[in-house]
Design a protein that fits this description.
This protein is mainly beta. Helices cover 3% and strands 37% of the residues. The strands form seven sheets. A nine-stranded antiparallel β-sheet has the order 10-11-12-13-26-21-20-15-18, with no helix packed on it. Strands 17-16-19-22-25 form a five-stranded antiparallel β-sheet. The chain has a four-stranded antiparallel β-sheet with strand order 1-2-3-4, with no helix packed on it. A hairpin with a 2-residue loop joins strand 10 and strand 11. The longest helix is centred in the N-terminal third of the chain and has 6 residues, at 65-70. The relative contact order is 0.16.
């Protein structure tokens, strides 16, 4: 089996725009390598073997930390919070009080605001060869949210090629906490082009419908007899061009898929296969669903790692999370984090080699 070709990346230390950035490298016994930056607690590279034992970096990103700061696609690999996804009109009601959040997506609030968890420095709490914990303290009123919120995120590479993510948070006042991970995956390699031939299978029975501004409208639509039905494995691009209104609104898939409410603990959310490399990704989560995003807004203007150009649909994201904008809709099971509770969430990305079931 080969070894990952990891370039030295001095530009992650001594950033001209952000002081105190650093890059950490995790490895497991099988040779997997995951590099994590404390700016945004983000995965910047992930080297995984293919069927021939060749390692490729399978997540999109940049070679220089300044590019993460300046790019319009700032979420590559990042930890998202306090609230993943969109909140319409950037407004929430918490125990009778209305809170105005920052507007950074038209009139709406997206992924924690103008300066979300993706755009701050996290503190190193623990580091081993295959494990890291980072923390961030979000102060009361930050981006409009109430309460001081202390968050930790841990990454672990296991011996059986799983990247485990664990989140914890505590607060001193009722607030929202709904964190997620935002790696842009291409299982053929970060420079390999379209992911439309990647094969996807999920157990989701329904998805959350969106409006023209990409906020959810409260409807849960059964996937049966729609392009959103991935219960039987099919290429991501098989029906992405259909003239379904929900696809047209997002320019592809950018929707929350809903897990079976009877699931408890870590449950299989999605499986993705890449035919050329033979790589398979299995995603497990204890959350109620995941956002499937197919890189609809990547347009070839972003220059990524090692000179790669990220074109249309050159990556997919599976962002495990609770219902978006859940405080607005009672059937979305609104959740508040109380001072007497601990926010806990887990997601696992398992990598293996297997032919797609087509």
């Amino acid at each position: 089996m080969g070894t990952p070709d990891i370039q030295k990346r001095d530009n992650f230390q001594g950033s001209s725009l952000v002081q105190g950035t650093d890059l950490y490298t995790l490895k497991n016994q099988s040779g997997l390598v995951c590099q994590i930056c404390n700016y945004g607690a983000r995965v910047t590279s992930l080297f995984v073997p293919d069927r021939d034992g060749r390692f490729d970096d399978i997540v999109l990103g940049f070679d220089c930390i300044d590019d993460y700061v300046l790019s319009e696609e700032r979420y590559f690999g990042a930890t998202i919070g306090r609230q993943s996804n969109r909140i319409r009109n950037a407004c929430v009601r918490i125990e009778g009080h209305e809170y105005k959040l920052t507007r950074n997506d038209g009139e709406n609030h997206l992924h924690g605001g103008t300066v979300g968890f993706d755009s701050v420095l996290w503190k190193l709490e623990a580091l081993k060869s295959d494990f890291i914990t980072l923390s961030y303290s979000s102060v009361d009123g930050e981006q409009g949210y109430p309460g001081n919120l202390r968050v930790t995120v841990s990454y672990r590479l296991t011996s059986d090629n799983i990247l485990e993510l664990s989140y914890e948070a505590i607060t001193d006042a009722p607030t929202i906490a709904n964190l997620t991970h935002h790696s842009f995956f291409n299982l053929e390699g970060q420079e390999a082009g379209s992911i439309e031939q990647h094969v996807l299978r999920t157990k989701a029975q329904s998805f959350a419908a969106i409006r023209e501004d990409a906020t959810v409208d409260g409807r849960l639509i059964p996937v049966h007899d729609t392009a959103f039905d991935f219960r039987k494995a099919k290429p991501i691009g098989a029906q992405i061009g259909q003239q379904e209104k929900q696809l047209l609104l997002a320019g592809g898939y950018d929707h929350h898929f809903v897990m079976d409410p009877s699931n408890s603990g870590l449950s299989l959310a999605a499986e993705v296969w890449a035919s050329n490399s033979g790589r398979k990704l299995s995603v497990y989560t204890d959350q109620r669903g995941f956002q499937l995003y197919t890189g609809n807004f990547l347009d070839g203007t972003i220059n990524g790692k090692a000179g790669a150009t990220y074109g249309h649909r050159s990556a997919f994201c599976i962002e495990c999370q609770h219902f978006p904008d859940s405080q607005t809709f009672a059937h979305f099971e609104p959740r508040l984090l109380q001072p007497t509770a601990i926010y806990l969430a887990k997601t696992s990305y398992k990598f293996s080699v297997e032919d797609a079931p087509l």
